[in-house]
């Protein structure tokens, strides 16, 4: 059975799952389904969220569990994504946790506020979230000034999971907010590096990737996510 990812490229979590599949030189079908339908919730994710993953052996939800499974299952194919030493593996897991618990929360608040009102996002919501995001980025800047990738010398899932989130941020944030990235030399170089990988280009070249190619004022927005 071909790999299927249930979700949409509107959502960075689904893009990250697809990116892991591509980094392992595998192909996948992107399947759209109403996530609140019993058919989806009973078979794929009882929480009614995207992405979910299916192959001949397993059905999985939670993007990081999907990425780790794919990286392990296709060990020896494509790019190694789990770290090449025990040390790197531990740091990869650590930074995946940082992504979930420190990076994603302010990113989510900022994105939601922009989706809700692209012309004039609520400053009382966006300002504190940008301040929180800035503090997180300072920690990334310190880390990336000491090490090429988050876990060490090798590109891992810890880096991969961030790529679609920066892609989305770049597309929807105004110039002031984008300066948070461009003004941090090491963060910015890292974003350019992880965004120039062939697997990411292949993913963003897919026809389903149509949501963030337009300006931040596009009306074609899904307000439910991230
Ligand atoms: N921790 C989850 C987050 C998944 C998530 O929040 N998915 C959003 C799309 S980005 C979703 O399905 N939102 C729809 C909803 O909450 O109803 C993961 O990493 O997969």
UniProtKB/TrEMBL annotation:
<comment type="similarity">
    <text>Belongs to the GST superfamily. Phi family.</text>
</comment>
<keyword id="KW-0808">Transferase</keyword>
<dbReference type="InterPro" id="IPR036282">
    <property type="entry name" value="Glutathione-S-Trfase_C_sf"/>
</dbReference>
<protein>
    <recommendedName>
        <fullName>glutathione transferase</fullName>
        <ecNumber>2.5.1.18</ecNumber>
    </recommendedName>
</protein>
<dbReference type="InterPro" id="IPR004046">
    <property type="entry name" value="GST_C"/>
</dbReference>
<dbReference type="GO" id="GO:0009636">
    <property type="term" value="P:response to toxic substance"/>
</dbReference>
<dbReference type="InterPro" id="IPR040079">
    <property type="entry name" value="Glutathione_S-Trfase"/>
</dbReference>
<dbReference type="InterPro" id="IPR010987">
    <property type="entry name" value="Glutathione-S-Trfase_C-like"/>
</dbReference>
<feature type="domain" description="GST N-terminal">
    <location>
        <begin position="1"/>
        <end position="78"/>
    </location>
</feature>
<dbReference type="InterPro" id="IPR036249">
    <property type="entry name" value="Thioredoxin-like_sf"/>
</dbReference>
<dbReference type="InterPro" id="IPR004045">
    <property type="entry name" value="Glutathione_S-Trfase_N"/>
</dbReference>
<feature type="domain" description="GST C-terminal">
    <location>
        <begin position="85"/>
        <end position="211"/>
    </location>
</feature>
<dbReference type="Pfam" id="PF00043">
    <property type="entry name" value="GST_C"/>
</dbReference>
<dbReference type="GO" id="GO:0004364">
    <property type="term" value="F:glutathione transferase activity"/>
</dbReference>
<dbReference type="Pfam" id="PF02798">
    <property type="entry name" value="GST_N"/>
</dbReference>
